[in-house]
């Protein structure tokens, strides 16, 4: 097996392709993909605790991406005290934790004199209070299936592929935390917290099981251990996939860039047949019209692109794809290459899907603009709280 | 002979609770297996059983060793409902664990819906005299406050490492339970005692 590369530097379009490839491979492995669904929103008076990840202030971390500031603050504080015994196991004082939470909520730094176990407890509380656990339920369903696999290699493979389906906010936070926990476990000679111990202490916070039976908890702690042990696999794709990603999909994300590219392309391919050139001309004309009304219907433009060039094998396009249920995913995944045309028409027809979830999604999309994240379990932009209160 | 006796005796369900890393498992393992384990694995849940004679009476103990971490609080009430007697452990070297003792005892009363219940408070790790930060008087004071309305509450200092008072703490808990059962274990345990006197 060749090495893996972290997907941070990929463009959005390529991330989508990586996601599609991951779906395909997971289905080949016989993993059942749960339905994607809308995350629950809760109104909170706090800035960080109990808020969805996207609503929280974040810090850019070199080599990983955007990570919630609370997480960064706690982890960087704890990393100065990696030698303390029983990190994350021993609990801190409740009274002092309350003060620390208030500080973090206001965005203030952690005081140097704060006892380390308080910080660990607050970090665990932050994880527990996330409306969607840091390891989302969909992913934990996939990972639970992974624990049934016999070889570690297979388990890690499923872990790696499953993580690629996540929206980037979740992915970066997960990668950051797990890499940090791996650092903690590397000092286990002194702090006596190797990965299985950390998994047992943090598993329920990370994964938030629905019901607390002994058996399930044991498996969940196993998953947490796996995530910590193979933290560098979170969000990484096999390096040899880069050959399978189609380079010309990229300019699509930027209309202007794409036009330049088209011009360059047409210059280069003067020998292209008349029919092709005509198609391209028509395509460009329509895309110009479309770009005027793009704010209302981005799909029109996109479908035009499909006509002007051979469409890309984008399965879970952030703007066109409906909720990718398991059935559509399994129908689509194995036929990426051949069914480009049909894929295009399907993405058009998906507009008329009238399931309640799709309806609500469209309603939210209209209200909230179109910033969306890439991922199979995609995340809508958080609703502005003020707007919600008005209605 | 003893085997048949142990089978006929109804087991006593003892639940060991306390904050994380205070030595609940060490205490339980020292009692049931007579060994001090050096490994540092956080428990999710473990159960042991042991039969022994206490005051010339056979007792079969089912000891449930629980997780101390906050994450597992959802399981807490579940096993508290099953428990017949509780061993609340804290570490004399850990102030936070001690602070939690009171709230744990209150939780027992709430879950059991009783004002009195057999509870043993154990101050563990007394072999670490140098790191000690909870005085014996401090713990005594806490227990005495509870004893005002719960006569079935007592405090013992233990060391799982040196096996100091390990047997005593479990045996005393069984004695407390027997006393409690003899009095009928009613809600008005304190009242009936007064009227008798």
Describe this structure in words.
Helix content of chain A is 53%, strand content 4%. With 391 residues, chain A is mostly helical. Chain A has a domain at 4-261: Orthogonal Bundle (Phosphatidylinositol 3-kinase, Chain A). In chain A, the strands form two sheets. Chain A has a two-stranded antiparallel sheet. Chain A has a two-stranded antiparallel ribbon with strand order 2-3. In chain A, helix 2 packs antiparallel against helix 4. The longest helix of chain A has 19 residues, at 168-186. Mean pLDDT of chain A is 72; it is low at 249-254, 267-274, 292-352, 367-372 and 379-391. Chain B has a single domain (3-182), classed as 3-Layer(aba) Sandwich (Rossmann fold), CATH 3.40.50.300. Chain B has seven helices and six strands, in the order αβαββαβαβαβαα. Chain B has helices at residues 2-8, 24-33, 73-82, 95-112, 136-147, 166-182, 189-196; strands at 12-18, 45-54, 57-66, 85-91, 119-124, 153-157. Chain B has a six-stranded mixed β-sheet with strand order 2-3-1-4-5-6, with helices on both faces. Chain B starts with a helix and ends with a helix. The chains are: A mainly alpha (391), B alpha/beta (197). The interface between A and B is medium-sized, with 27 and 22 residues. Chain A: Residues 346-357 have a biased composition (Low complexity). Chain A: Residues 289-360 are annotated as: Disordered. Chain A: Residues 59-235 form the Rho-GAP domain.
What is the topological layout?
The complex is a heterodimer of chains A (391) and B (197).
Chain A: E1 4-6, H1 12-28, E2 58-61, E3 65-68, H2 69-78, H3 94-105, H4 116-129, H5 137-146, H6 152-163, H7 168-186, H8 188-191, H9 195-207, H10 214-229, E4 236-238, H11 255-268, H12 274-292, H13 298-308, H14 326-332, H15 340-349, H16 356-368, H17 385-390
Antiparallel strand pairs in A: 1-4, 2-3
Chain B: H1 2-8, E1 12-18, H2 24-33, E2 45-54, E3 57-66, H3 73-82, E4 85-91, H4 95-112, E5 119-124, H5 136-147, E6 153-157, H6 166-182, H7 189-196
Parallel strand pairs in B: 1-3, 1-4, 4-5, 5-6
Antiparallel strand pairs in B: 2-3
């Amino acid at each position: 097996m060749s090495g893996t590369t972290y997907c941070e530097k990929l463009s959005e379009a390529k991330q989508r392709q990586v996601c599609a490839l991951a779906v395909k491979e997971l289905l080949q492995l016989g993993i059942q993909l749960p339905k994607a669904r809308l995350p629950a929103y809760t109104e909170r008076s706090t800035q960080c605790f109990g808020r969805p990840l996207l609503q929280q202030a974040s810090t850019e971390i070199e080599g990983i991406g955007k990570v919630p500031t609370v997480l960064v603050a706690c982890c960087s504080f704890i990393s100065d005290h990696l030698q303390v015994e029983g990190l994350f196991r021993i609990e801190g004082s409740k009274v002092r934790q309350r003060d620390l939470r208030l500080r973090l909520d206001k965005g203030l730094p952690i005081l140097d004199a704060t006892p380390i176990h308080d910080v660990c407890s607050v970090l665990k509380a932050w994880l527990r209070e996330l409306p969607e656990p840091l390891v989302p339920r969909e992913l934990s369903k996939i990972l639970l299936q992974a624990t049934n696999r016999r070889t570690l290699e297979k388990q890690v493979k499923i872990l790696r592929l499953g993580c690629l389906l996540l929206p980037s906010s979740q992915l970066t936070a997960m990668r950051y935390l797990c890499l940090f926990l791996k650092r903690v476990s590397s000092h286990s000679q002194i702090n006596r917290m190797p990965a299985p111990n950390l998994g047992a202490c943090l598993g329920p916070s990370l994964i938030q099981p629905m019901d607390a039976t002994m058996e399930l908890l044991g498996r969940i702690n196993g998953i947490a251990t796996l995530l910590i042990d193979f933290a560098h696999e979170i969000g990484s794709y096999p390096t040899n996939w880069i050959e399978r990603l189609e380079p010309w999909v990229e300019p699509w994300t930027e209309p202007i860039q794409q036009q330049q590219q088209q011009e360059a392309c047409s210059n280069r391919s003067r020998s292209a047949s008349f029919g092709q050139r005509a198609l391209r001309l028509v395509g460009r004309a329509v895309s110009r019209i479309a770009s005027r009304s793009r704010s209302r219907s981005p799909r029109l433009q996109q479908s035009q692109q499909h006509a002007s060039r051979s469409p890309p094998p984008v399965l879970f396009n952030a703007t066109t794809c409906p909720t990718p249920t398991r059935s559509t995913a399994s129908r689509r995944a194995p036929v990426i290459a051949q069914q480009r045309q049909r894929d295009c028409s399907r993405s058009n027809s998906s507009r008329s899907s009238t399931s309640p979830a799709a309806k609500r999604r469209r309603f939210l999309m209209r209200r909230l603009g179109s910033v969306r994240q890439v991922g199979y379990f995609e995340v809508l932009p958080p609703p502005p709280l003020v707007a919600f209160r008005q209605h | 002979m003893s085997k048949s006796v142990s089978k006929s005796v109804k087991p006593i369900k003892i639940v060991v609770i306390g904050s994380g890393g205070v030595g609940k498992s060490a205490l339980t393992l020292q009692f049931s297996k007579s060994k001090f384990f050096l490994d540092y694995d956080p428990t999710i849940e473990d159960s042991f059983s042991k039969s022994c004679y206490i005051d010339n009476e056979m007792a079969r103990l089912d000891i449930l060793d629980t997780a101390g971490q906050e994450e597992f609080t959802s399981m807490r009430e579940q096993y508290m409902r099953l428990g017949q007697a509780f061993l609340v452990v804290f570490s004399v070297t850990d102030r936070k664990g001690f602070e939690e003792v009171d709230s744990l005892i209150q939780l027992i009363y709430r879950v059991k819906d009783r004002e009195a219940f057999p509870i043993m408070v154990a101050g563990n790790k007394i072999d670490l005299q140098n790191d000690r930060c909870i005085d014996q008087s401090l713990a005594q004071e806490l227990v005495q406050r509870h004893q005002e309305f719960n006569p079935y509450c007592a405090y013992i200092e233990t060391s799982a490492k040196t096996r100091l008072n390990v047997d005593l703490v479990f045996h005393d808990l069984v004695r407390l339970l027997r006393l409690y059962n003899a009095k009928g274990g009613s809600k008005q345990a304190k009242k009936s005692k007064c009227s008798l006197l």
